[in-house]
Amino acid sequence: MAIASDQRQSLELTKSLSTNKLSIEEFLALPETKPASEYIDGQIYQKPMPQFQHSTFQIEIATAINLIGKPQKLAFAFPELRCTFGDVSIVPDIAVMRWANIPFLPNKRVANEAPVAPDWIIEILSPDQSPLRVMNKISSAITNGSELGWLISPAQDFIMVYEGDRFPEKMIGKDVLPVLDVLNWQVTVDDVFNLLCLE
Length: 199
Known about the structure:
The chain is an alpha+beta fold. It folds into 2 domains: 1-46, no CATH class; 49-194, Alpha-Beta Complex (tt1808, chain A). It contains 5 helices and 10 strands, in the order H-H-E-E-H-E-E-E-E-E-H-E-E-E-H. A 6-stranded mixed β-sheet has the order 3-6-7-8-9-10, sandwiched between helices. The protein has a two-stranded antiparallel ribbon with strand order 1-2. The longest helix is centred in the first third of the chain and has 18 residues, at 52-69. The protein starts with a helix and ends in a 5-residue tail after the last helix.
C-alpha cells in the first residue's frame, strides 16, 4: 500500500509540474516515477507503461546487440538508462553506447550515471504515445551527439531512421537498417519485427 501511495503521489507531482517549466536541476531533484519521467524542452513527460510487444522488442534487440558488442568490447545496449545531457534528461527504451564511451569505475564496474547522449537511441512507439513527442526526443539526442536513432512503429511495421543531419528515413520490409559502425550486424526491418515471433 505504501509503495502504491508513493507512486501515486509521484505521478500527481509529475502531472502538476508538467504544465510549468522547470530547470533541469529542479527536474533531477524530483523523485523518480514509474514509468520514468523525462525532461525535454523544459517540460516533463511520463513514459507509458510497456506492454508485451514493447517489452519483447526491448529485451530481444538489446540481447542481439550485446551478443555482438560485448565479447569484443565494441558496444553495449542498456534498456531504460537515464541519460542526461545539455538541457535534456531522457530514458530511451534502449540506449546503445560505444564501449569507449561507457563510464567505468577504477574497479572496472560500470558507473551509475550516464551524463552523455547515447551513441544510438532506440525507441519503440507505444499505442498511446505521441509520435511527435518521441520524434522530438530522438531529434534532441541527435542534436546533442547521438549518431543514430531508430523509431520502431509496431502498429505500422516500419522503422524511422535518424542519422546526423539527414532527413529521417522510413524503412520497411527487406530494407537493411543502419547500426553503429563498430557492430558487424546486418539486420533488416523484417528481422526486427520477426523478433516478436517467440515460437
